[in-house]
Specification:
The chain is mainly alpha-helical. The protein has one domain. It contains nine helices and two strands, in the order H-H-H-H-H-H-H-E-E-H-H. Strands 1-2 form a two-stranded antiparallel sheet. A hairpin with a 3-residue loop joins strand 1 and strand 2. The chain is globular.
Length: 199
């Protein structure tokens, strides 16, 4: 079955034509038109999750901007100051969409431990990407704030960390739901194509 990474990267013009192996089709392979139809369905049902996957995989800067806008709007509607909402949104989108792969698990979210087999990576908590330390996170958030609104690390941890993590967790959850929905559609299309090939 086609991976979610390949599904989202196939919509980017440079990847459609650059790899001849991607263009080799078996009879049950998914066409570019089917890919666009799948992405359209995912976008209509899971717009935030679709934007996360677009920003992560297709490196769509407009999707990242859309996510920032959604988070800022949500935080402001909960009474959070616009500057703080903007800083939290910027950093949460960076963590979820722009983080490099975790150095321990190499982006898989899992690693092999002797006697235990594959276990969840303790460094990235299973997400597969770099997770900043508390000190790095605080430094990054205050870099987006005007000097008059910068806060101590203790204040950030006590007052804003849970709100920040709520935004990060929401983005991960939405992306997971969008990916699961896309996989389900892909599976159905590939099964139909395989049935046609046999029939």
């Amino acid at each position: 079955m086609m991976s979610i990474q390949l599904l989202y990267s196939r919509q980017v013009p440079r990847t459609i034509n650059c790899d001849p192996a991607m263009l080799t089709r078996s009879a049950n392979a998914v066409t570019n038109d089917e890919i666009l139809a799948i992405l359209s369905k995912v976008k209509s049902k899971h717009p935030v999750g679709n934007a996360v996957l677009d920003a992560q995989i297709a490196l769509d800067v407009y999707a990242a901007l859309e996510l920032r806008g959604e988070i800022i709007s949500n935080l402001k509607s909960n009474g959070i100051d616009e500057d703080i909402a903007t800083a939290l949104a910027n950093v949460s989108v960076i963590e979820v969409c722009d983080s490099p792969a975790c150095s321990r698990c190499k982006g898989t979210g899992l690693f092999m431990r002797a006697g235990e087999g594959l276990i969840e990576c303790s460094k990235c908590h299973g997400v597969g990407s770099f997770v900043p330390s508390g000190r790095e996170l605080h430094r990054l958030v205050i870099s987006y704030l005007p000097e008059s609104k910068r806060m101590s690390r203790d204040t950030f941890k006590r007052k804003w960390y849970d709100i920040y993590m709520g935004a990060v967790d929401t983005l991960h959850t939405e992306a997971g739901e969008a990916a699961a929905y896309a996989k389900d559609i892909l599976r159905k299309i590939e099964n139909e194509n395989e049935y046609r090939e046999v029939g």
